[in-house]
Amino acid sequence: MTTTNKDSVLLETRRTPTVKQPSFWQSVIHAWNGLCHTIRTQRNAKIHIVVGVVTIGLAIWLGLEFLHLSLLVLTIGAVLAGETINTTVEAIVDLLSPEWHEQAKIAKDVSAGAVLILSLTALVIGLLILGPPLWEQLAVSRAG
Questions:
Q1: Terminal CA-to-CA distance of the chain, rounded, Å?
Q2: Which residues of 75-106 are buried (b: 16+ CB within 10 A; e: fewer)?
């Protein structure tokens, strides 16, 4: 297939060879393997999981409403998704630039910065949702 750009230069586009798509369940297995790789190899992913489990446990103990619990789960999921995307960026950069390069450093730093934004946002959301009922529970415990 050929197309022309505004300068009338012929450009040839390549068709990708047809590759059989894996089954749905095979795709789920690949995704699970990727998630396990992230958890196994990334210290911060482990930290995010522990904080997430503690947060959900605290939310259940405080008897939070379903909507608040759902917002916490969504927020925790966003942080974990960000961590997996960061792991992907790091793997691709390491593959394409095995030696140190300023642009590779920038790509990794920016990707890690995105996870930092998600983590700080999750912290604020957690404090806004858990703070008041936790404070109330602590006040009741001291009074009684």
A1: 79
A2: bbeebbebbbebbebbeebeeeeeeeeeebee
pLDDT tens string 95-118: 999 999 999 999 999 999 999 999
Domains and CATH numbers, the chain: 43-143 (1.10.287.3610)
Q: Is 83 a catalytic residue?
A: yes
Run of H or E residues at 42: none
Active-site residue, from 12, 65, 83, 136: 83
Burial class of residue 45 (count of CB atoms within 10 Å of its CB; 0-12, 13-18, 19+): buried
Q: What contacts 84, CB < 8 A, 6 or more positions away? A: 34, 35, 38, 45
d(CA 53, CA 47): 10
User: How far, in Å, are 9, 23, 34, 131 from residue 28 at the CA level?
Assistant: 43, 9, 10, 37
Calpha distance 66→80 (Å, rounded):
21
Nearest to 62 by CA among 126, 144, 19, 105: 126
pTM over 0.90: no
